[in-house]
Amino acid sequence: MTPLSYAIAHSLPEIILAVGALGLLMLGAFRAGKGDWIISEAAIVVLGLALLSMFFQLGDKAIIWDGAFVDDAFARFMKALAIGGALVSLLLSREFMARNGIDQFEFPVLVLLATLGMSMLISAQSLIALYLGLELMSLALYVIAAFHRDNGRASEAGLKYFVLGSLSSGMLLYGASLLYGFAGTVSFTGIAQALQGSPSLGVIFGLVFVLAGLSFKMSIVPFHMWTPDVYEGAPTPVTAFFATAAKVAAVAVTVRIIITAFPGLQHEWRQIVVFVAILSMALGSFAAIGQTNIKRLMAYSSIGHMGFALVGLAAGTEQGVAGVMIYMAIYVLMTLGTFAAILSMRVGDRYVEDIADLAGLSRTNGLMAFVIAMMMFSLAGIPPLAGFFAKWYVFLAAINGNLYGLAVIGMLASVVAAFYYLRIVKIMYFDESARPFERANVEVTAVMAVMGLFVVIFSFFPGPAVVQAAAAAAKSLF
User: How far apart are CA 141 and CA 86, in angstroms?
Assistant: First the structure.
């Protein structure tokens, strides 16, 4: 096998996404004004093919394209989550976009381009590749956040995300330039070799700025300020995409750069990770209590969950990285199920978002109420649902890494967060009935049912397979 064919064989998902996005862009341009249903269907097929192609990639690990990208078990696991999140988000978007009159062909194309950026980001093995993937993802996300152009909240969401995202990109780029200046290389492994021994102050500054830029993409405190407004203002399927695929890519590249490029600076980066994890868990637990809009509540919930995921990373061990991966897999599926339920909240032709609109749902749609209740219990971490095991693995890694205080704070934050999740269950089952919702379409109902089933039976069927896959993938980083 020639070097080019070898690199192509290990880049199949990215090549499929790139060719698919360019092809659908041309098809949409020539079909101007004829709706996007063919483009949406084709984009779902392209994402499915990209997901399928990862099962045919060869070998355990390959560093390709002159050391810029790496294809390993960790990348494949996280790419599967990101591409799967994009595929399901696109499925959920079809009826919503059509009912709001924004079903233009550009949307599925932008989702494909953003997913391509995420895939590049997850496989990045150098600072330049990291920045290229990050900007390709971010530029597409800025546009789809404001895709509902006639809606003031959506335009505001897109503008806020763009301005703050540009600031965070500048911070990351400044940190990357410092690291390059002191290490003399942009390769993660080269940086690790160059930074052996006592780190200089410039390297510490570079590490802080890079982590600050990535923290914005993960929406962790203190770089979370955009999250509630963007989650509330953006179209709901776009919010689902932000909350799942984009978070996976940001967490994946953060784990990779910390473990691969800074193994000798564990004391320095652990302080940062522990600090932001505690702040994120605390803010996500307390700030959501007073929310009345369910999308804003999910925004604060996502901030808290990113804090919980970072508990595993703070351990800095193989077990900790596996815990982060298990957490992200379960978080993505719980979040997709919850947003499918939010997209089922339709009265007439109007989608509603107030938590009060769920009142008495158990009497008007018992099955939907049961699925939402399971999602809320799981997000709260109540056993034996999937969310309990997500927190179990990251807390176990923290305890084994002697981070007892962090684990205790995480468990206390979980108790506080349980209040607002259980309040939703109380509203559905004990309050007076509000207006009944319209019947959701097949795709939304199917996603809600599948994710609800996953949450309930995780410990019996998919759980052991996910845990084994995460353990094998984490091993490839060490």
Answer: 12
What sections of 54-151 are H helices per DSSP? 73-99, 106-123, 127-145
Cβ(109)–Cβ(21) under 8 Å? Answer: yes
Q: Let me know the angle formed at the C-alpha of 374 by 252 and 367, rounded to the nearest 5 degrees.
A: 125
Within a domain: 304? yes
What is the spatial distance between Cα 181 and Cα 127, in angstroms, rounded to a whole number? Answer: 12
| Token code pair at residue 286 | 């307390």
CB 303 within 8 A of CB 250: no
Amino acid in position 143: V
CB 171 within 8 A of CB 217: no
- Is 16 within a domain? no
80 SS3 class: helix
Q: Within the chain, which residues score under 70 in pLDDT?
A: 1-2, 32-36, 57-59, 197-198
pTM summary value: 0.93
Residue whose pair of structure tokens reads 């179990």 in the numeric block: 392
Q: Which domain holds residue 312?
A: 264-478
According to the model, what pLDDT value does residue 2 have? 66
- How many residues does the structure list for the chain? 478
- Phi and psi at residue 346, to the nearest 5°: -130, 125
Q: Which tokens is 34 given? A: 């004829």
Under a CB-based contact definition with an 8 Å cutoff, are residues 308 and 367 in contact?
no
Rounded Cα distance, 21 and 74, in Å: 25
**What is the maximum alpha-carbon separation in the chain?**
68
Q: Give a yes or no: residue 83 inside a domain.
A: no
Helices (runs of H) and strands (runs of E) counted in the chain: 21, 4
What is the pLDDT at residue 194?
83
Q: Residue 4, Cβ neighbours under 10 Å: how many?
A: 9
Q: Which two tokens stand for residue 377?
A: 């219990």
- In single-letter form, the type of residue at position 286 comes to F
The stretches of 292-441 forming alpha helices (DSSP H) are 294-315, 318-343, 361-364, 366-380, 386-400, 404-430
Residue 159 falls inside a structural domain: no
CA 395 to chain centre: 20
31, 8 Cβ separation under 8 angstroms: no
Query: Using an 8 Å Cβ cutoff, are 241 and 113 in contact?
Result: no
Number of domains in the chain: 1
Cβ pair 246, 134 in contact under 8 A: no
Distance CA 444, CA 93 (A): 9
* Contact call for residues 109 and 24 (beta carbons, < 8 A): yes
CB 205 within 8 A of CB 175: yes
Q: Please, are residues 81 and 328 in contact by the beta-carbon 8 Å criterion?
A: yes
CA dihedral 46, 335, 455, 415 (to 10 degrees): 160
